[in-house]
Amino acid sequence: MKGTEYIKQLVEEIHSATVATIGIDGRPQTRVIDMMLWDCDGVYFLTAKGKAFYTQLMEQKYVALSSTKDKVAISLRGKTRNIGSDKLNEIFEKNTYLQSIYPNVTRKALEVFQIYEAQGEYFDISDPAHIVRENIVIGDTKAIQSGYFIKKNCIGCGACYESCPQKCIDMSCIPAQIDQNHCLHCGQCSEVCPARAIEKRETL
How many other CB atoms sit within 10 Å of the CB of residue 10? Predict the structure, then answer.
């Protein structure tokens, strides 16, 4: 699936996410927030202007979120901006339960935020023997490429393949290759490699 299909799944199927900011004590603070809308430009949610969460969003302009349903998880980390009442009526039309929480003019207490430059990950373990991992990118940013990679000094012994829970290492070539879309990032291959040819990387 493409990135837009993942954020559509986040909003329309999972809907609720645990969102983290930094509290006044300098430590992470989380709360569950409903993701209300999505489009090619990002993901939209709202909060009341009187909440500490609102103040943190205005000051920090960045969030991290994680959501999960039916053994599928979607995570995002990225920039946020306040777009005021823009899209507020559309959000109430698509999420009708809000009309009972904030009836009529009381919706004026709310403002909409957009996650507009973000990167993250889709992780699916619904088929435990064949997990799926994909990068997600929103807007003008790059995905962080993380995982284990096999270097040129691979000797093709197969120890990594035997230790891999997902058997996602291709031994038909030397150096062998790890299929990053099916890797658990458990690190077992690196531990057993006699040539020390497997390294953990995290790069943009």
Answer: 25
